[in-house]
Write a sequence for this structure.
């Protein structure tokens, strides 16, 4: 996210004094709950869904993820790049391209 968007998320929480409710476990639970609501948008069709509902639920997931990053003192770019390095090693292009197999089945 852009810095100004991250600051907006932080200010929203701060202005409402909600940080006291944002334990890591509460935030992780909230991410899963919102991800379930995102999945619900596709419950009956992979082709017919309300894009506005998808955007709202996806935004909720992202906001809670940012809150959890803040709570744990983590940087999104850093942890994503660390994970991508691991993924690139587990799923080399020459073995994984065009396949949906798990790394241990390649």
């Amino acid at each position: 996210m852009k810095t100004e968007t991250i600051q907006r998320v932080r200010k929203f929480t701060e202005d409402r004094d909600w940080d006291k409710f944002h334990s890591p476990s509460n935030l992780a639970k909230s991410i899963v709950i919102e991800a379930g609501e995102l999945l619900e948008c596709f419950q009956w069709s992979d082709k017919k869904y309300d894009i506005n509902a998808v955007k709202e639920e996806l935004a909720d997931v992202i906001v809670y993820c940012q809150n959890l990053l803040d709570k744990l003192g983590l940087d999104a770019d850093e942890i994503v790049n660390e994970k991508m390095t691991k993924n690139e090693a587990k799923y080399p292009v020459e073995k994984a391209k065009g396949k949906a197999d798990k790394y241990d089945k390649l």
